[in-house]
Amino acid sequence: MSMLFKVFSPPAELKTYVHSIQIMEVDKSENSGRNKIVPYGYAGLLLHYKDPCVQTDRINGKRLLPQAFVTGLTDQPIIIEALGNIGTIAVNFYPLGLYHFLRSAVYEFTNSTVDGTELLGPEIIQLRASIMLTSSIYEKIDLVNRFLVRKLGNIDFRNSRKIEYAQNALIASKGIINIAQLSKESGLSLSSLERQFRKQIGFSPKYYARILRFDYVFKLKQMPGDVNWQDIVFQAGYHDQAHFIKEFSKFAGEPPKGFFLHHLFSSRFYSGK
Question: Is residue 273 assigned to a domain?
Fold first, then answer.
């Protein structure tokens, strides 16, 4: 088989921190070359266990990606170019989940890609080596899960429970939520919610909500049946079609019609769509 794409749910110990784990393998002959990846509201740990990839974005330019790296939340499109056969595992972290794994402020990694060894130590090199030694995708995912459980340690959520509540409420609402009401429900003043959310997650609650609404468009687009753009605009909480196109173009770098024509499959994997 020249192409494989599978999504796994995390084990119970990781569900508070990890949304999903995905694996993709594509032979060089099946590669589409340059793939556009767009924001989706989660942070990531990515492990390339076959050939390397090059990333290009507006902030950091073009560079060779480490074989194992952490990426924070992003609000801009990224171009990924595979230099051969693709073998990639992507761990999609809830933003607050990544905050606790790294024991540092996630805003430091916004729109950034950082070598995994700098953040998670030399164990990440050992993990990648073990992944390369097995051909079973299930064993590969099991290795990743065991690594994450070991790194988790004894995490105390007491100082983050209100932000965890706000994060989960935003995700559950697909970003269609009143931020002032959210501050009341989370037990934080609006200014405290803004400040702590930025520190622990990387964006303000309002801006994060915009990214989640953008991501919801992809879920609506993939629903069975004849879902037209007018329905999507309404259900995703946009004022009108002009507002929707402006927001989509900001995060995707192009209007929706062009994006869905050329980039949907690659974005599904790299962005968890």
Answer: no
